[in-house]
Design a protein that fits this description.
The complex is a heterodimer of chains A (about 425) and B (about 375). Chain A is about 50% helix and about 10% strand. By secondary structure, chain A is an alpha/beta fold. Chain A has one domain: 3-Layer(aba) Sandwich (Rossmann fold), CATH 3.40.50. Chain B is globular. Chain B starts with a helix and ends with a helix. The relative contact order of chain B is 0.13. Chain B has a domain of about 120 residues: Rossmann fold (3-Layer(aba) Sandwich). Chain B has 15 helices and eight strands. The chains are: A alpha/beta (about 425), B alpha/beta (about 375). Chains A and B meet through helix 6, helix 7, helix 14, helix 15 and helix 16 of A and helix 5, helix 6 and helix 14 of B.
């Protein structure tokens, strides 16, 4: 006979983090600073993820992350229109929806909050450290804004064990070249003391993030995947500032208190899962749907992509090490190895792959990673299609039905009826 | 010698390769025109381009999502079906995100005795060239280890010379299309070019040396046809060129990765071999996955002028991100020059000939 999960009639509402209030304030201050940057003579530098943001703060610039902003547009339900505006200018709907949405913002001068959007860039700074899309997208924006653009080349192998001193040297030379150009474009000299301070702040924020990440191994796991994605904002945008460090201290203390008191985010934690890759910003609540089955996400790779330890005594060398060893560019086998370690440490029961239709770079390997984990560890997986930013084509009912049957399967597997 | 012999060689490419294997040769497969084939050739190994096809996907979908380009999906399909069982090794230049991802997927699912992932800088600065020389040296050393034989400077120079001869011969073929009435239509030239991807260069050269003199006096059947250019990434469907010809036009020049972008630039024979190769492979007109979009766009405008092109078809393999980012700009630049442009999203898998022909007919009518 078929066993049906018993689900509460009311959708699950997770306990709220006290640190959320501080996060809201940080957000407000950041966007105010961004809006006032030009008056204050601070360069606005548009950057990609895996661009060494430390350089921007070392020049007293304000970094702006179009990716983060597209996520905001998506959660505010304006991304679809903005993506369509990008398409109207000839950009394909198949492209990265972060990019497509940003093109809409750029061409239409329309932002997430019914405003004019972010201030135009003084400098466009990119790298292909995360994906090949980034520099291409930045080139397209450079043709529009006609401002200076710097690309930091990140040539490395996919097998991380063949990463050699030559790769580091080339990357470090690219960083120094970027500094030279930043000095030229901003008319400022980079101060060694300032870089030192920024690198220390960046390192501390990462160290604190790593501590929080470690604590997710506790049973029950202390925070939700939505908390993790939301609390990434300072690590993505404010890394290198004192404020980010202070925020993560507060968050770490709160998470630690939960762990010490065995407070879980799901009251009766039955399953521990991994979320593979991008959130669905237009439907973040989907993550809580799993909690209705007693499932919690306990670890991921995406969040940790933004954390990386640095050494202030060797800023360029350690930045090179940190950004070149970016694990998301590893081969599928390499990524599976990382997951294997986490599956053990975090006592994982299954993995959920969000097959992000607009991102070939990080979805192409998902089926293979799933096969490796299934063949070697017997780990069950669920894969469903979505788009991180653009809600078009996403079928919530279908996805929820898939989740339901996946959870039934996990239930039968982990808690077989005698 | 006729173009049909090239077409036949391509069609029989797997059989031919199996024949080389029986005679004791080693064969490596590779992707895209970033592979420095000369080094493989100098190691005594025959490099062949791994190609896809148009047949339906049955096996590859378990390993690769359908949002990946049809080239990579169908190439993997062919390999999973055992058509590339004769390969000894495969080389994946890290050109785009797809070749990066496919490297590990192939490595896990297609058992070969040699795999190499070749990092390629995104830039073509002096620092990038110096860095790349180091990568080429590592690649060379790994091939030496694999074969147990040193690759001498001399054999590298010979390989470079042979490849340059091939490029020069193909240039002569392109030059024929400068005529008002080219002796070969675009679809037949494509067959000649495509054969060169999958056979030893000395054999391709020998065939070209027979073909070219025969063509010098041939009067073609392309007189009065609309002169078009095709620009994009890669494609397998020769029928699309035939459809263009049947509709009253002829492709006289291209910027695609199995055409001029592969064949045009030569290697400096007076330079130290690895440096010359690094410079050639980083500084020629590149696929948009590297960061000098202007170079390619102005090159396309020049080709259009030199070959007296009346319109351009931008044929992009669906889901090829890096081409899709440049395409609106390229389209605008061409239109600024007064050139009509037809934008086509192409997929070899499930190619819809009827739909394509209707689009092309309307376009040619507009141009002509």
């Amino acid at each position: 006979m078929e066993t049906k999960q018993e689900k509460p009639a009311v959708p699950f509402k997770p306990p709220r983090l006290a640190a959320s209030a501080a996060l809201g304030t940080l957000n407000e201050i950041y966007y105010r600073d961004l809006a006032n940057a030009k008056q204050q003579g601070r360069p606005v530098v548009w950057i990609t993820s895996m661009t060494p943001i430390e350089l921007v703060y070392a020049f007293d610039g304000i970094p702006f992350f179009p990716e983060n902003y597209a996520a905001l547009c998506s959660s505010r339900k304006v991304a679809e229109d903005l993506c369509k505006a990008g398409e109207a200018r000839g950009y394909s709907q198949d492209l990265c929806a972060y990019a497509l949405c940003t093109f809409g913002v750029m061409f239409e001068k329309r932002g997430a909050l019914g405003d004019e959007g972010p201030p135009a860039p003084d400098i466009l700074l990119a790298t292909e450290g995360a994906c090949m899309t980034h520099p291409k997208w930045w080139e397209a924006m450079q043709r529009h804004y006609k401002c200076p653009m710097i690309i930091i080349d990140a040539a490395y192998t996919v097998d991380s064990d063949t990463l050699s001193p030559r790769h580091r040297e080339y990357y470090a030379s690219e960083l120094k070249e970027a500094v030279r150009l930043m000095e030229k474009y901003t008319n400022k000299k980079l101060g060694a003391a300032k870089l030192h301070e920024v690198v220390i702040n960046s390192d501390q924020a990462s160290a604190l993030w790593d501590e929080i990440d470690d604590m997710r191994a506790a049973a029950p796991t202390p925070i939700s995947q939505i908390d993790v994605f939301t609390c990434l904002f300072p690590l993505v945008t404010l890394k290198g500032t004192k404020e980010a460090v202070e925020f993560y201290k507060q968050l770490r203390d709160e998470v630690k208190m939960r762990v010490d008191n065995k407070v879980g985010f799901v009251p009766d934690e039955k399953f521990r899962l991994i979320w593979d890759m991008f959130p669905i910003y237009h439907n973040m609540r989907l993550l809580n749907y799993f909690a209705e089955f007693g499932a919690a996400f306990v670890t991921d790779l995406y969040g940790n992509a933004f954390s990386g330890r640095l050494n202030a005594d060797d800023p360029y060398g350690s930045l090179a090490d940190r950004y070149l060893s970016f694990f998301m560019r590893a081969a599928s086998c390499g990524k599976a190895e990382l997951y294997k370690k986490r599956i053990k440490k975090y006592h994982v029961d299954g993995i959920v792959f969000h097959s992000n239709r607009c991102c070939r770079c990080f979805t192409a390997e998902q089926p293979d990673i799933g096969c490796i984990l299934r063949d070697e560890l017997g780990l069950p997986s669920l894969m469903f299609e979505g788009n991180m930013v653009d809600p078009r084509g996403y079928n919530d009912a279908q996805v929820r039905a898939k989740i339901e049957s996946f959870m039934e399967m996990l239930e039968a597997r982990k808690y077989p009826k005698k | 010698m006729k173009h049909s012999e090239f077409a036949e060689a391509y069609r029989n490419r797997h059989k031919l390769a199996e024949g080389w294997k029986r005679s004791g040769k080693k064969v490596f497969g590779h992707f895209c025109n970033f592979t420095p084939e000369e080094i493989i050739y100098a190691a005594g190994i025959i490099p062949v381009r791994i190609r896809g096809g148009s047949e339906n996907i049955e096996l590859a979908d378990a390993h690769l999502p359908s949002i990946c380009c049809s080239y990579m999906r169908s190439a993997l399909e062919q390999a999973l079906k055992g058509r590339y069982n004769y390969l000894d090794g495969a080389v994946f230049p890290k050109s785009c995100d797809m070749t990066r991802a496919l490297y590990s997927i192939w490595k896990r699912n297609i058992k070969l005795s040699y795999y190499w992932n070749l990092p390629i800088p995104g830039k073509s600065t002096d620092a990038a060239v110096d860095f790349y020389i180091g990568e080429l040296r590592l690649f060379q050393e790994s091939l030496e280890k694999y074969t147990g034989k040193k690759i001498s400077d001399d054999s590298l120079r010979q390989a470079i010379k042979l490849y340059n001869q091939n490029r020069a011969l193909v240039r002569e073929l392109y030059n024929l299309s400068l005529r008002d009435n080219p002796p070969l239509p675009g679809s037949e030239i494509f067959e000649v070019l495509r054969a060169g991807l999958v056979m030893p260069k000395e054999e391709h050269n020998a065939m070209l040396r027979k073909l070219l003199p025969a063509l010098s006096t041939v009067k073609g059947s392309q007189d009065g046809k609309v002169r078009l250019m095709i620009a994009g990434n890669t494609f397998e469907t020769v029928e699309l060129l035939q459809a263009i010809e049947e509709s009253g036009a002829n492709i006289v020049v291209d910027d695609v990765d199995i055409g001029s972008r592969y064949y045009f630039a030569s290697v400096n024979e007076n330079e130290e071999p690895l440096r010359a190769l690094a410079e050639r492979y980083l500084r020629k007109v590149l696929c948009p996955c590297k960061h000098n979009a202007q170079h390619r766009v102005y090159h396309i405008l020049k080709l259009a002028k030199d070959y007296r092109v009346q319109g351009v078809i931008l044929l992009t393999q669906k889901y090829c991100d890096t081409h899709l980012y440049d395409r609106p700009w390229l389209e605008g630049k061409l239109k600024e020059e007064g050139l009509p442009v037809l934008v086509v999203d192409h997929s070899d898998i499930g190619w819809a000939g009827g739909k394509f022909k209707t689009m092309v007919q309307a376009f040619i009518e507009m141009v002509g």
